[in-house]
């Protein structure tokens, strides 16, 4: 009984409204920090705990809404909670990553190179770990838009890396990785991140490709959460439009 | 301030003239004629968007200039849908809104065509940007519909003679805001999927993402406040809607051009 009263007080609509305003202003504060610093700040342990508590509160709100047959509210709050839980799972994977089981990293290759090592840092100097498969770059290619005037290099239209992936005890396979078309191998998403020019040991210019590797166990939870959230928002809006037909919707 | 002496510019100015005539005539006895110009403005705006798309060879949603062109073209159909759903006749405000939207496209933003970088070559480009175009238009309309609520500073009693007027303004603005909120949620969802496919993560803490999230939370606060208080306090209701709209305007203008907020969404 006391628990119920406590929940009624803490999870009330006015608390929710102020929380929304607080989160709104907090988002703006993080926007002023810039993406990198905001991401780093959010990844700190107290913030993870805070997000966990928020997810818990949202889950309780959603469950209570479900019992009260407020289906739109239930979908909405449970969806938000699932998104946060998925994000936390991703953060935990990053924190518990080991050199044998890394969660993210970069790999720079020139044509013919083969590697399973992931690096990080501005010059890709720090070894992060090894992925459980090897990647061999067959060919990196850059395609440009047709140039309008000679002497002027047109913008890049597309760049892609054709790689051979060899997982343990599996036949090798060829993947063409380009922007917006990542490859998915053994739980890792492999992205075409960037490229650049360097010189090989004979002083000849060569293009190198930078591939980004990411492993995120919470990804599908996040997508599920977004799906629930969307259903909740849609349901809520649909209820708002029953107003004309005499329902007491939206209130 | 710069006149665009191109067919593109001409189309924009024709749209603006049509919207201006529409807004003027809708306030006189010649309402049907005003509606005609309002529709003609929509036709010009659509031609303008199509021309831009053919001219640049990609969906015209890459930079601010193209985004604002799309907003102007989306305005008429969205107003019709909303009119059908809420029964509110807002043609005059909408024509004025169209004029305001097209002003920066016509005189401020650069119309220099750019090639589409690899990151933007995705089937999610049109749905993601399109849902935000529609959402922002609808939220702007919602803010204008809530204007009468500002007239009631204190608590509203049920026997107040203006109760009917406030209830009406509240109902249409809330329905419109709910529609915009759904579209914002779709935009956010599609953006997170695209971000995962393109950048490697569904959430990058990018300044523009954070401002969109702030907008989203502001409307969430509005809905919570409405659920809590009903129509007892009309002024804060309107205030929250206008705060949300202010965030939309800032996201579209300041955030896009300011160095302070440069990030991965900087395509404009």
How can the largest sheet of chain B be summarized? none
Number of strands of chain A: 8
Number of strands of chain B: 0
N-C termini distance of chain A: 26 Å
**In percent terms, what proportion of residues of chain B is strand?**
under 5%
Question: How many helix segments of chain A?
Answer: 6
Overall residue-averaged pLDDT value of chain A: 89
Biggest interface, chains and residues, is: A-B, 59 and 59 residues
Average pLDDT, all residues of chain B: 90
Global outline of chain B: globular
Gross morphology of chain A is elongated
Task: Work out the radius of gyration of chain B.
Answer: 19 Å
The structure class of chain B reads mainly alpha
Order of helices and strands of chain B: HHHHHHHHH
Describe the main β-sheet of chain A briefly: 4 strands, antiparallel
Please name the defining characteristics of this protein.
heterodimer, A: 251 residues, alpha+beta, Tick-borne Encephalitis virus Glycoprotein, domain 1, 2 domains, 4-stranded antiparallel sheet, 6 helices, 8 strands, 43% helix, 30% strand, elongated, disordered C terminus, B: 268 residues, mainly alpha, 9 helices
